[in-house]
Protein backbone atom coordinates (compact mmCIF):
# COMPACT_ATOMS: atom_id res chain seq x y z
CA UNK A 1 0.00 0.00 0.00
CA UNK A 2 1.18 3.48 -0.73
CA UNK A 3 1.65 6.08 1.94
CA UNK A 4 0.29 9.59 1.94
CA UNK A 5 1.15 11.81 4.86
CA UNK A 6 2.18 8.85 7.01
CA UNK A 7 -1.02 6.85 6.43
CA UNK A 8 -1.80 4.09 3.97
CA UNK A 9 -3.92 5.04 0.98
CA UNK A 10 -6.54 2.49 0.02
CA UNK A 11 -9.34 2.90 -2.52
CA UNK A 12 -12.28 0.68 -3.38
CA UNK A 13 -14.31 0.57 -6.59
CA UNK A 14 -17.52 -1.35 -7.27
CA UNK A 15 -18.28 -2.23 -10.90
CA UNK A 16 -21.12 -3.85 -12.80
CA UNK A 17 -20.19 -5.03 -16.28
CA UNK A 18 -22.56 -5.83 -19.14
CA UNK A 19 -22.04 -7.44 -22.53
CA UNK A 20 -20.52 -10.82 -23.25
CA UNK A 21 -19.03 -11.14 -19.78
CA UNK A 22 -20.23 -14.57 -18.68
CA UNK A 23 -19.06 -17.84 -20.17
CA UNK A 24 -15.70 -16.36 -21.23
CA UNK A 25 -13.68 -17.12 -18.05
CA UNK A 26 -13.92 -13.47 -16.99
CA UNK A 27 -13.81 -14.32 -13.29
CA UNK A 28 -10.68 -16.45 -13.61
CA UNK A 29 -8.76 -13.94 -15.70
CA UNK A 30 -9.82 -11.19 -13.28
CA UNK A 31 -8.60 -13.20 -10.29
CA UNK A 32 -5.20 -13.65 -11.94
CA UNK A 33 -4.99 -9.93 -12.76
CA UNK A 34 -6.03 -9.01 -9.20
CA UNK A 35 -3.30 -11.24 -7.81
CA UNK A 36 -0.75 -9.64 -10.14
CA UNK A 37 -1.81 -6.15 -9.00
CA UNK A 38 -2.16 -7.16 -5.32
CA UNK A 39 -5.86 -6.23 -5.33
CA UNK A 40 -8.37 -7.53 -2.80
CA UNK A 41 -12.12 -7.88 -3.32
CA UNK A 42 -14.35 -10.23 -5.25
CA UNK A 43 -15.97 -10.99 -8.60
CA UNK A 44 -19.17 -12.85 -9.32
CA UNK A 45 -21.68 -13.59 -12.06
CA UNK A 46 -25.13 -12.12 -11.52
CA UNK A 47 -28.36 -13.85 -12.53
CA UNK A 48 -29.18 -11.09 -15.04
CA UNK A 49 -26.03 -11.77 -17.10
CA UNK A 50 -23.87 -9.02 -15.63
CA UNK A 51 -20.60 -9.44 -13.74
CA UNK A 52 -20.10 -7.64 -10.44
CA UNK A 53 -16.57 -6.72 -9.35
CA UNK A 54 -15.42 -5.06 -6.13
CA UNK A 55 -11.75 -4.15 -6.06
CA UNK A 56 -9.64 -2.57 -3.38
CA UNK A 57 -5.99 -1.61 -3.17
CA UNK A 58 -3.53 1.14 -3.93
CA UNK A 59 -4.98 3.84 -6.19
CA UNK A 60 -2.67 3.05 -9.13
CA UNK A 61 -3.40 -0.69 -8.94
CA UNK A 62 -7.15 -0.13 -8.67
CA UNK A 63 -7.06 2.15 -11.72
CA UNK A 64 -5.17 -0.52 -13.70
CA UNK A 65 -7.74 -3.14 -12.65
CA UNK A 66 -10.64 -0.86 -13.61
CA UNK A 67 -9.09 -0.36 -17.06
CA UNK A 68 -8.61 -4.12 -17.41
CA UNK A 69 -12.25 -4.78 -16.43
CA UNK A 70 -13.47 -2.36 -19.10
CA UNK A 71 -11.80 -4.58 -21.72
CA UNK A 72 -11.93 -7.99 -20.07
CA UNK A 73 -10.28 -11.22 -21.18
CA UNK A 74 -9.77 -12.22 -24.85
CA UNK A 75 -13.29 -13.50 -25.66
CA UNK A 76 -15.25 -10.96 -23.61
CA UNK A 77 -17.06 -7.96 -25.04
CA UNK A 78 -17.67 -5.38 -22.33
CA UNK A 79 -20.45 -3.09 -23.56
CA UNK A 80 -20.89 -1.02 -20.42
CA UNK A 81 -19.22 -0.58 -17.04
CA UNK A 82 -21.06 1.19 -14.25
CA UNK A 83 -18.75 2.13 -11.41
CA UNK A 84 -18.93 3.79 -8.02
CA UNK A 85 -16.25 4.39 -5.43
CA UNK A 86 -16.96 3.17 -1.91
CA UNK A 87 -15.29 3.38 1.47
CA UNK A 88 -12.48 0.79 1.67
CA UNK A 89 -12.52 -2.03 4.20
CA UNK A 90 -8.99 -2.51 5.61
CA UNK A 91 -9.96 -6.04 6.71
CA UNK A 92 -10.11 -7.27 3.09
CA UNK A 93 -6.93 -9.17 2.29
CA UNK A 94 -7.72 -11.43 -0.70
CA UNK A 95 -9.53 -11.48 -4.02
CA UNK A 96 -12.26 -14.10 -4.28
CA UNK A 97 -14.34 -15.63 -7.03
CA UNK A 98 -17.91 -15.89 -5.82
CA UNK A 99 -20.93 -17.53 -7.46
Report a brief summary of the structure.
With 99 residues, this protein is of the alpha+beta class.
Description:
The longest helix is centred in the middle third of the chain and has 13 residues, at 59-71. The chain has one domain (9-88): Alpha-Beta Plaits (2-Layer Sandwich). It starts with a strand and ends with a strand. It has helices at residues 26-37, 59-71, and strands at residues 2-4, 7-9, 11-20, 40-45, 51-57, 77-86, 95-98. By secondary structure, the chain is an alpha+beta fold. Helices cover 25% and strands 43% of the residues. It is built from two helices and seven strands. A hairpin with a 5-residue loop joins strand 4 (40-45) and strand 5 (51-57). Helix 1 packs antiparallel against helix 2 (59-71). The strands form two sheets. A five-stranded mixed sheet has the order 6-3-5-4-7, covered by helices on one side. It has a two-stranded antiparallel ribbon with strand order 1-2.
Descriptive tags:
single chain; 99 residues; alpha+beta; Alpha-Beta Plaits; 5-stranded mixed β-sheet; two-stranded antiparallel ribbon; 2 helices; 25% helix
The rounded distance between the terminal residues' Cα atoms is: 28 Å
User: Which residue ranges are poorly predicted, with pLDDT under 50 across at least 5 consecutive positions?
Assistant: none
Sheet/helix structural class: alpha+beta
Oligomer: single chain
InterPro entries: Acylphosphatase (IPR020456), Acylphosphatase-like_dom (IPR001792), Acylphosphatase-like_dom_sf (IPR036046), Acylphosphatase_CS (IPR017968)
Keywords: Hydrolase
Family: Belongs to the acylphosphatase family.
Active site: 27, 45
Amino acid sequence: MSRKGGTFVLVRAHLWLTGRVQGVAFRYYAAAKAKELMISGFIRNLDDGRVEVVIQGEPESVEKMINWCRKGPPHAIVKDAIMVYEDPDPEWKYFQIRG
